[in-house]
Amino acid sequence: MCDNHHTHDTSPHKGLEHEGHDLEHKKWSRRSFVQALGIAGSGSMFLGSHLISASSPSPLTAAVAAAETDNILILIRLSGGNDGLSTVIPIQQYDTYANARPNIYIPESKVLKLTDDFGVPTYMGALESLWGDGQFKAVHGVGYENQSLSHFTGSDIFANTDLTTTGFSGENTGWMGRHFEELYPDYLINPPAAPAAIQIGNLANMVFQGEETNYAFVTNNVDQLEQIAETGAFYDIENAPFDDCMYGDQLRFLRGVANTTYEYAGTIHDAYMRGQNQVEYQDNGFARQLALLARLIKGNLGTKVYMISLGGFDTHGNQPIVHERLMSNLSVAINNFYEDLAFTEQDDNVLSMTFSEFGRRIFENGSNGTDHGKAAPTLFFGSGLSGSAFVGEHPSLDEPNNRGNLEYTMDFRNLYGTVLAEWLCVPRESVEQHLLGHPYQAIDLGFNCSGEEFDDIAMDNDPPTLPETPPSQDPLDPNVDILDTIEHAAVYPPESPRNPKIEWIMPIAAHVDIELFNILGQRVGTLFNEMVMEGRMEVYIRERLRDSLSTGKYIYRISVGDKKMSKSVMIS
Known about the structure:
This protein has 572 residues and is of the alpha/beta class. The chain is built from 14 helices and 22 strands. This is DUF1501 domain-containing protein.
């Protein structure tokens, strides 16, 4: 007889300490193992060395499958806790942001400005064309009240929508699993024609979890799903190496799941052979996931919900390099994916959205990284958005909580509810039931199946204003006020920051003092301190400080009499 009893530490994550962080990962791994064996109520299991789950509908897929829509939803899990301030840069709060992260902030020269108020790092530049085509929205400050800083608990809450979840207590079914379960109570003996959901990942995420089983077709990794798609073959249950724990009802259950899975393997293979990729994707795991999904969608598989993962976002150290690699891969792959779908005009029917278990803190730590935080943006992609925008209110960086966390401004359940009701056309009553009774506020994301009117919400989609004409192209106007003159001082040429110059116009003779400060507010030196006559003036920064400046962001302050004006400058 096997002892399947396990003791679990259900204490919530307590903070930044790496010892506690490592301990939580041990608990997370142990619980993942239990789930994979089917002991924790999951339909997942090991066949040989592989982890699979039966592919079947869930309450959501049921309503989804029954809904009069061909729309498809792709959930993109950014595993580890994505740093929102390295994803969407708050330009209107830039100085506060940079001061909080003197070693890891995104320099202004590397911010792709999408509106006057917000931008993304240039390493996410592959999304610029999606923005221009109206296929990219970012929702600010997504989270929930008293947000958990635990990987495990945070992941569960985003999956089961139960804010009281702690460790192994709380709701153990997912927002989509509850819906699929209602529609397919006998899915093992009477499965739908196509998988209700498909997930690539080594843990059957609770999103698709029902009371009895997980309702997603899960493969351990993209290699396994590619093998199934290419060959139509799955794993041989008869020759699986079961030990003494796997016998009787358990073995019959596993065989039943495997038989259902085998049926879907053939269905997936047929769709894969019908579809084809028409763009070249990068050779990395995330790009391969999207390339495979594109081929299945173009092959008309019939599955309406997919979930894929991109891991590595637990950036306690070396965040700039790690985050750049991850988000660059994501951006390029998303762009390629929608280009691919556009060949068959299916891009209008596919909505993608990211989610992560939490965000990260405003302030950097001592390891060139950030620690577990709270609110973070959710990114949406697809033609169905009917326009690009930054949605909602960005959290204030000037008013963090006592641990340096951004407070949430958008309840994540509002986004779930909106996607279910307005994109997948599930009735509000059913949606709220599967959000555990939460009366969600529908958000205007550009699509509207229910016909409900949306409450007004901040929407920033205006392109950035063009920079003013450099002063060297303006006629000298002696009647311009001194204050107005220095407010229009600028650094040129902006595209060559190695030795930038400050250029301005003096309408009258006056004494001018220009000082340079680092982003911590410490004075670096004097750039200019002279009596000047009226006319056009310029100062080359590195020449004045004899090339002793290190690369980074600085602030220069111009003083003329009692008038002062400060602006930032990037020096590389």
